[in-house]
Amino acid sequence: MSYEGVIEQSAAGLKELMESGEEIIGYIYPHVPLELFMAHGFTPSLIRALPGVSSGYEESLQTFACSYIRNLYSQRANGQFLTLAGLLFPGNTCDALQNLGDVWRVRFHDDRVLRLTYPVTRYSQDESTTNFLAEEIRLLSETLSRTYNRPFLTESYDGAIELVQDFRNSAQFLYSARVVNPKIISYSNVIRLVRTFLTVPTTSSVSEIKEAATEVRTTADELGLLSIIESVRHAILEGDYSKVKLPEDIETPRIAIAGGMVEPQAITSLINGIPDFSESAIAIDLLSFGFKSVFTKPPSKSDDHFLEMAKSVLTAPGEPTHEGLSYRMNAMKGLLANFSIHGLIVCEQSFCDPDQFEAPSIEKAACELDVKTIRVPLDPELSDRGRIETRIQSFLETLE
User: Fold this and answer.
1) How far apart, in whole angstroms, are the C-alpha atoms of residue 151 and residue 33?
2) CA–CA separation, 29 vs 46, rounded Å?
3) Pairing relation of β-strands 372-378 and 343-349?
4) Global pTM?
5) CATH topology for 3-152?
6) How far apart are CA 397 and CA 7, in angstroms?
7) CA dist., res. 108 & res. 11, Å (int)
8) Is the N or the C terminus of the chain less surrounded, counting Cβ atoms within 10 Å?
């Protein structure tokens, strides 16, 4: 299915859900406690930038707003947003996202704007980081109860934990299977299933990805790859790759995709548009809308729901963006070295300072492993598609 087709399918599913009477809370930063919204009776839906949206330098936005921010703002200004019960913005992740929430609240005053503030650092000697985020989640829960008159229901929360973890278990298996054999299931199919769930997290979207995982599991078992796939999955979750041993006859070249809030479908569309190459070259992505969302650990069931949700959010690999550069680079190096990655495509959201500040460190870390890299500036509209495809094609040819 094409990039535009995937977007259309997920949007249709969301619209159908709203027409059935479900209330939707949209969120922009991908690492939020989905279980919290479900516990209050809402359906959380990840709001994404869209190709084909005409965006420019709006007078309401600061000059440092990236192409992603401008795309989101233009969707709302152009009347392309569905009517949501609320929209959650992050605090303390990047200046552009935080300021977008402030501008949105003033410009679109009929919208209900919510905020979840993240801690300054992921790690601390005590539990202050986790406790801070737990308190912020609790305050958000109180806001939902007070604003919408929808209390936190423990039964709904427990069911949400199971639903989200069913999705992640299946998605983690599919990601890990592609590390071992990228042809066992297409990358475009995996990320379509992931996008569908993050847009419409329902039992039907979970059932679809579980069925795909079951089919791949059967194939992997027949090929004798099941134990290797499970070892890869365990290694990613624990960050320890010492026991991973991939098959010796893996096909090359093998590339990884790194970056922040970049659409996986866009990357697939670009590579599939290059003659003599296909998405089977992609062994894994490290993107916020893919890998980082999929490999987040679930909250444990205990009396302190907010603390457990905070712990879960903070396990997202490579997030929050301020968790520590050395930690992120070491984690990436472990993955590149042990998954036989030959090339790394570093995606940079146009005018995104966090992406562009971190890219040199990513290049340096990859260089230490003799992994070739290329930096690709992108915007949601793929406005420079021809030039980007040419650059990626030249890069893939050097790997061959």
Assistant:
1) 16
2) 8
3) parallel
4) 0.93
5) Rossmann fold (3.40.50)
6) 30
7) 22
8) C
